[in-house]
Amino acid sequence: MKKTIHKVSLLAAALLMSTLFFSGTKVLAEEGDAASETEEIIKAATSISISPVSKILQIEESSVYEDTFKVTNNGSSAMEFEVYASPYSYTFSETDNEYQLGFSRENSYTQITRWITFRDSSGNYVENPHFTAMPGESVEVAYKISTPSSIPAGGQYAVLFAHTLSGSATSSGIKTEASPGLVVYGRSAGETITKAEISDVYLSQSMKVKNEETGEEEDKTIVNASAKIKNDGNVDFMAQGKLRIEGLFGNVYYETPATQARVSVIPESELVVSDQWTETPYFGIFKASWVVSAGGETTEPMTMMVVLLPAPIIIAFILLLTIIIVWIIIMVRKRKERRSRFMV
User: Fold this and answer.
1) Whose C-alpha in 27, 140, 218, 312 is 20 to 30 A from the C-alpha of 277?
2) Are 262 and 240 in contact (CB under 8 A)?
3) Is domain 10-188 given the CATH code 2.60.40.10 in the classification?
4) Contacts of 254 (CB under 8 A, 6+ apart)
5) At 104, is the secondary structure helix, strand, or coil?
6) Lowest mean pLDDT among 202-206, 283-287, 333-337
7) Alpha-carbon distance 264 to 250, whole Å?
């Protein structure tokens, strides 16, 4: 029995493409010119691409699901690559005190990895076939998911990687490889539990930011917002934070775009949604609000007033305030002196 695999939303696809594509790039470098090395690394990372970058499907017991994806050689020479399936999961790091994406940890939500095979050039379905793509050529890779007679309830997650095998060494001794991936989201017909826990909701006005060019901290007012999202259920869900900046008269100066601060949270993981208002004006008073939604849960808006005053204005205000206070003190003393003279 064959079933068509449906497309996931473009928003999730774009997010996952950026996460998997760049984190999957491997680079081995020796000494050489830093600028040329960076150029070679970027070139290698963009020489192979995969399409689509995500699939979502309903899975049932004792069924076969078939589909294809394309791997494109964007480079200028022939490229050999392999395809394989890896678990898609998060592992908690004690060192960094956060969950980190990994492709080796197996759990009850990654069993789908064992059910996936790929069709090789001979027409046989195997776990790890090899292919060759000429410059500009797209190779269509067929795969199938054969489910057993009993599958766990909830979600199943895997990544289908296309990993280059023919990375060439540059004149500086760099050898590059790339591994773009397609994420498969599966949901069984059993009982699904969506349970999101939203914590550490945070909204603040920061006066210190890091200069990307110099690496040094400098004074600049920005609005920071973040929240932690934990998945205690057995299926994935989308989570998003919405930062909104308004003026005193209701004008909207900033609002989180629909495609930003939006993440897919799979079971047994905790991720952070965040946003910043960095393009702040030089002067003004604003109202900031931060709302977080995840798995059907939405927080109450967290609000704060944002006062933007440049240093010269602050100094001038302090001087003016000091002058006014001194003048008031002098006037009070003069009045007391006049009253004492009158009483005498």
Assistant:
1) 312
2) yes
3) yes
4) 243, 244, 245, 277, 279
5) coil
6) 333-337
7) 32
Question: How is residue 15 written in tokens?
Answer: 């997010």
CA dihedral for 309, 310, 314, 317, sign (positive or negative): negative
Q: Cis peptide before 301, with omega less than 30 degrees from 0?
A: no
Question: Going by DSSP bridges, is the β-strand pair 217-231/270-277 parallel, antiparallel, or unpaired?
Answer: antiparallel
pLDDT at 311: 60
The lowest-confidence range among 33-42, 163-172, 257-266 is: 33-42
Q: Give pTM, 2 decimals.
A: 0.70
For the cut 90, the answer to whether the pLDDT of residue 92 exceeds it is no
Listing DSSP states for 201-270 in one string gives EEEEEEEEEE-TTT--EEEEEEEEEEEEEEE-SSS-EEEEEEEEEEETTS-EEEE--TTSSEEEE-TT-E
User: What is the 3-state secondary structure of 109-175?
Assistant: CCHHHHHEEEECCCCCEECCCEEEECCCCEEEEEEEEECCCCCCCCEEEEEEEEEECCCCECCCCCE
